[in-house]
Amino acid sequence: MTDLEQHFEDTIAADHRIEPRDWVPEGYRKTMVRQIAQHAHSEIIGMQPEGAWITRAPSLRRKAILLAKVQDEAGHGLYLYSAAETLGADRGELTEMLISGRQKYSSIFNYPTLTFADVGVIGWLVDGAAICNQVPLCRSSFGPYARAMIRICKEESFHQRQGYELLLTLMRGTQAQRDMVQDAVNRWWWPSLMMFGPPDEASPNTAQSMAWKIKRHTNDELRQRFVDMSVPQAEKLGVTFPDPLLKWNDERQHYDFGPIDWDELKRVISGNGPCNEERIANRRRAHEDGEWVREAAIAHAAKKAAVV
Amino acid sequence: MTDLEQHFEDTIAADHRIEPRDWVPEGYRKTMVRQIAQHAHSEIIGMQPEGAWITRAPSLRRKAILLAKVQDEAGHGLYLYSAAETLGADRGELTEMLISGRQKYSSIFNYPTLTFADVGVIGWLVDGAAICNQVPLCRSSFGPYARAMIRICKEESFHQRQGYELLLTLMRGTQAQRDMVQDAVNRWWWPSLMMFGPPDEASPNTAQSMAWKIKRHTNDELRQRFVDMSVPQAEKLGVTFPDPLLKWNDERQHYDFGPIDWDELKRVISGNGPCNEERIANRRRAHEDGEWVREAAIAHAAKKAAVV
Amino acid sequence: MNEKAVAYVLRLGDDALVAAQRMAALATWAPQLEEDVALANIALDLLGQARALLTYAGELEGQGRDEDLLAYRRDEHEFTSALLVEQPDTDFAATMVKLLFFSAYQRLLYEELSAGDDETLAAIAAKSVKEVAYHLSHACAWTVRLGDGTEESKRRMQTAVDELWPYTHELFASDSVWRGYGFDPAGLRERWLGIVEPVLAEATLERPVDDWAPTGGRDGLHTEHFGYLVGEMQSLHRAHEGVSW
Amino acid sequence: MNEKAVAYVLRLGDDALVAAQRMAALATWAPQLEEDVALANIALDLLGQARALLTYAGELEGQGRDEDLLAYRRDEHEFTSALLVEQPDTDFAATMVKLLFFSAYQRLLYEELSAGDDETLAAIAAKSVKEVAYHLSHACAWTVRLGDGTEESKRRMQTAVDELWPYTHELFASDSVWRGYGFDPAGLRERWLGIVEPVLAEATLERPVDDWAPTGGRDGLHTEHFGYLVGEMQSLHRAHEGVSW
Questions:
Q1: GO BP, one example (chains A, B) (predicted)?
Q2: How far is Cα D123 from Cα D129, in angstroms, rounded to an integer?
C-alpha cells in the first residue's frame, strides 16, 4: 500500500472527510462521481413532474410554494454538479450523459403527476423517501457531497412538510379532493418503496460503498425505516397504502409489507416507464433551445476579455 | 382592335362569361388573378381567428358547427385557388405571395377573436358583409370565379344564419353572455364596414372593374346596403352599434352613419393590425412544417410512376 | 341502470371525443389545403360519433347527463379513453400513424357492434363504420406515401410508429367492462395486425416488437398530456355555470 | 369604496400576476441551471407582488374578494394587465426583452408609489422596488450579452425588441384610472427611455421607431394569447367550486 492509499484508508477509518485535494482510488472517484451525477440528474429531471402544475396551481399560495420548491431543486442540481466537478467531472459532459440516456436518474420521476394531489404526495412520500436515503449521506466520506447533502436535506424536509400540509388540507376538503389524495397515494406508494433500490441480496456494490463510507445503511434497512415512518403518517392523514400485507409485526418491532414488483422497477429503469422518453426529450429540448444563449454568452465574454 | 379584343369586348357587352380558354387583355387577367388570390388568401387566413375557438367551444354542438365552418373555408380557398389557376396562376407561387406578405388578404382577419361571442358576430357581421360583397360576384364576367362564388355564397349564408342563431342564444342567456355579445359587436362593427374598401372617391380602379363586369356595385353602395340590412337585425337581437350618428334618413330611405376611420384601415392593411404578424407567421409555420410531407408525397409519386 | 353498459359505451364515446379534440386542434395546420379539409372531415366524423355515443351513455345511465355534461363536467380521471388517442400530434407523421392504429381498431370494433344485440349501439356503429373505413384508407394512403417517400419522411414515420406502437396494446386489453357488454375487443388484435402489418410493410416501415404495453386509460389513469387537453376543452364551459350556448 | 383606487391597484396586480404566470411557465426550460434559479426567483417576486396587490385591491373593493377570487374567478376581459406582459415567450430573447421593458417600467412606477400617500400601496411598492431593481439588472446584463454576442443572438434580440417595442407605449398611456389615483405612469416614458435606450445601445441593438402602439389591455381587451393563459391558469380552480386548496 502506498502512502497515498494509506492516507485514504486512514481518513476513511477515522471517519474524517475526503476533500477534493486528497488522493482517492479510481474506483472511489468513479463511484462518487456517478452517485453525485445521478443525484444531480434526479433533481433536474425531478423539476418536471411537479413543474407541470405550476401554471395550473389552484391558489396563488400553492403556486408560490410549488415554484419555490422547483427552484430549490434547480439549486440542488447546481450544488451537486459543483460537488461532482471537484472530482474532475465536467458539467457539460454530465449533461450530455443525461440527455443521451447514458446516465440514469431516479426512476421515480418517470411516473406521471396526474392531479394536484400528486404534488402533495410527491412531497410527502417521494421527498420523504429521499430524505431517508439522504440523511445518512450527510455523513458521506466525501466532504463536498456531505456538505451539499446537509443543505439539501434541510430543504427537502421543508418540502416534505409542505406536501403533507397540502394533503391535510385536501383531506379536510370535499370527497372529490379526498379521493384525489387516495388515488395519488395508490399510485405513488410502490414506486416510493422502489426508490431505495434493489433488495440487499441483489445489490452487489453495497458492501464496497459501505466500506468507503459513501453509503451508511443497506437499501432494505432504509426501506424499512421509511415504511415504519410512513404508516402512522398515513393513519393521521386518513389514507391507506395499497398493500394488503402491510401490518405491524410485534416481534420484529417493524411493519411487514408485501413483495415489491422488481420487474416493474427494472422495466422503468431500462426505459419503459410511463414518462421516460418525455422527461429526457424535454430536458434535451431545453438544452438545445438554450444552445444559442450559451454560445452568445461565451462569445460576449471573449469580446470583453479581448478589450481588457 | 384585333379580333380577339373584339370577341372579349363583345362577350363582356353581352353579359356572357369569359372562360379559361378565351383570350383576355393582360390587365383583365392580372386584376382577376389578384382579386381571386386575395379572396382565396382571405378564406385561408380567415380560418385562424375562429379556428382558435374550436378546441374551447363550450358545447359539442357548437364545436361541430365551428369545425364545419372552418372546413368550408378551407374548401372555399381550394375552389378559389383552382379558379386562379385557370388563369395561369400557380398555387405554390400564390402561397408564397401570401406568406411573404406581398399579397394581401381581407384585413378584417387581423382583428382578434377575444370571446366565443366573436364567433357569432363574425358569422353575422363579417360573413354578412362578405355576402353583400360576393352576391354580385356570382355574376362576375369571369366564369370560374362566378361559379365558385355561387357555391361560396350559399355556404356563407348558412354560416351567417348560424352565427346569428348563436347570438340569439347568447342574448337569451345570462347578463355575462349578453355583455359578451355587445362587446363583440362593439369591436367588430367598424372593421366590418371597412370590409367594403375605401370610399368611392378614393377607389380609382372601380371604374375599370365595373366596365369589365368583375365588379357590379361601388364600395359605398355595398356598404350602405350592408348597414341597411344590419340595423334591423341588431334591433331584433337587442344590441346596438357603436355609432351615435347611426339613424334612419327618411329622405334617402337609407340609414346614415358616422365617418369611418380610414387611417385605421390603412394602418391595418399596411401591417399594423392587432394580429397581422401572427396570422402570417402561423400560415408560414404551417406551410414550412408541411414541407417534408409535400416533398415526400412527390417523391413517392415519382417512385410509383417509375415502376409503371 | 346497466352499469356495465354505461361504462362500455362511455369508453367508445371517450375514445371518439378525445380523438376528435386532438384532430380538431390541427385545423389550419395541415401540410396542404386538401388535407385541412380531410382532417376537419375526420374530426367531424369522430365528433359526431362522440356525441351519439355520449348521449346514449347518458340515457343508459339515466341520471340526466347529456353529451355536454359528460364532455365538460367530468374530471380527467373520469374519462376512460385509451391512452393512444390522447398522444400529442408532434408532427404529421404522428397524426397519421395514430389515425392508422386507431381507425383500424374502430373499424373492427364498430363492425362487430353493428351486428350486436343493442340496437341503438348497433345503429351508431353501423353509421360510424363507414366513416372510419374512410379514415383508415386515408391513413393507409399517407402511411405508404410517407413511409416510402423521402429519407426524412421515412425517419419521421418510423419514429411515430415506434413511439405509438406500445399504446396499441391497451386497445385489446380485456377486463370486466369489455367482457360485460357488447363485444370484447380483446379478440380483435390478430385481425388488427392483419390490417396494420401489411400497410407498414408496404410503407417499408418496421413493425416494432411487442414489448412495453402501458395501460391505465380505461381506468381513468391518463398520461400527463391529458390534463392540458381536458383543461383547454372545458375552460370556457366551466367558466360559466349552467348556461346555454 | 374608492372605485378608482380599486381599478388602479388591480392594474398593478394584474401586471405582476400575468408576468409571473408567464415567467413561471418557463421553469425547467432555461438555457442553463443558474438561469432556471434566476427566472424562478423573478417569477416568485412577481407572484408575491401580485398577491399583495390583489389582496389590497380586494380590501379596497370591500366585496370580500381575496387574491384567489380575483385571480381565478374573473373572466379574461376583467383583467387589466398591459398587453406587454401577456406576450408569449417565443424564445429566451423575448423573455429577456420583455423583462427589460417591464422591469424598467415597474422600477420607476414603484419608486414613485413608494413615496405616495397610500401607505399600504407605498409599503408594497417599497418592498417591490428592490426586487424589480434586481430583475432590471438581470435583464440588462442579458440584453447586452446577447445583443453583443453572436450573430444569431443579435438577430434574435433585435427581433424581440422590434416585436415587443410597440407594446411599451401602452404602459405610458394615460387615462382616467391612472389620473384618478396614485401616480400616473404617463409621465415616466422619458425616464423609461433614459434607462432602456442606453442598454439597447450598449447591446448594439437598434432602438425601433415609435409607430404602431396597440392598446386595450387596461380596458380588458387583450390579445388572442391571453385566453389560453387565463384558461390554463384557472382550469383546475374552476373545476372545483368553492373548495380550499
A1: phenylacetate catabolic process
A2: 10
Torsion of CA A75, A77, A80, A82, to 10 degrees: -80
Chains in contact with D, where contact requires at least 3 CB pairs less than 8 Å apart: A, B, C
Instruction: Over range A14-23, report the average pLDDT.
Output: 92
Average pLDDT over residues B151-168: 96
Tens of pLDDT, residues A189-243: 999 999 999 999 888 888 888 888 888 899 999 999 999 999 999 999 999 999 9
What are the angstrom distances between the C-alpha of A104 and each of A35, A268, B282? Answer: 10, 11, 38
Residue C196 CB-half CA count within 13 A: 26
Residue of C nearest to B165 (CA): C245
Contact B289 C37 (CB under 8 A): no
CB contact under 8 A, C77 and A114: yes
Look up residue B228 and give its amino acid.
D
Nearest CB partner across the interface for A272, out of C77, C212, C226? C212
Residue C68 and residue B59: Cβ atoms within 8 Å? yes
Disruptive mutation site among C17, C18, C28 for chain B (greatest number of B CBs within 10 Å): C28
Please tell me the predicted confidence (pLDDT) of residue A206.
82
Give the start-to-end residue ranges of the domains of chain C.
3-239
CB of D69 less than 8 A from some CB of A: no
3-state secondary structure of D133: helix
B274 touches chain D (CB under 8 A): yes
Position B1 confidence tier, pLDDT thresholds 50, 70, 90: confident
Residues of chain C with pLDDT under 50: none
* Contact residues, chain C, for A114 at CB < 8 Å: 76-77, 221-222, 224, 226-227
Question: Considering only CB atoms, which chain D residues are within 8 Å of A293?
Answer: 31-32, 92, 146, 153
- The residues near B19 (Cβ < 8 Å, ≥ 6 apart) are B143, B144
The pLDDT assigned to B308 comes to: 67
Best A293, A303, A307 member to test D by mutation, with max D CBs in 10 Å, is: A293
Q: For residue range D97-132, what is the model confidence (pLDDT) as tens digits?
A: 999 999 999 999 999 999 999 999 999 999 999 999
Decide if D75 and C236 are in contact by the 8 Å CB cutoff: no
CATH of D3-239, one of 1.20.1600.10, 1.20.1260.10, 3.40.50.970, 3.40.50.9100: 1.20.1260.10
As a whole number of Å, the end-to-end CA separation of chain B is 50
pLDDT tens digits along A179-199: 999 999 999 999 999 999 999
Contact call for B and A: 3+ CB–CB distances under 8 Å: no
B285 touches chain D (CB under 8 A): no
H or E element at residue C169: none
- Average pLDDT over chain B reads 94
- Does residue D167 belong to the interface with chain A, where contact is any CB pair within 8 Å? no
Q: Is A133 helix (H, G, I), strand (E, B) or coil?
A: helix
Q: What is the 3-state secondary structure (H, E, C) of chain B?
A: CCHHHHHHHHHHHCCCCECCCCCCCHHHHHHHHHHHHHHHHHHHHHHHHHHCCCCCCCCHHHHHHHHHHHHHHHHHHHHHHHHHHCCCCCHHHHHHHHHCCCCCCCHHHHCCCCCHHHHHHHHHHHHHHHHHHHHHHHHCCEHHHHHHHHHHHHHHHHHHHHHHHHHHHHHCCCHHHHHHHHHHHHHHHHHHHHCCCCCHHHCCCHHHHHHCCCCCCCHHHHHHHHHHHHHHHHHHHCCCCCCCCCEEECCCCEEECCCCCHHHHHHHHHHHCCCHHHHHHHHHHHHHHCHHHHHHHHHHHHHHHHHC
How confident is the model over A111-137, as pLDDT tens digits? 999 999 999 999 999 999 999 999 999
Q: What is the ipTM of this complex?
A: 0.92
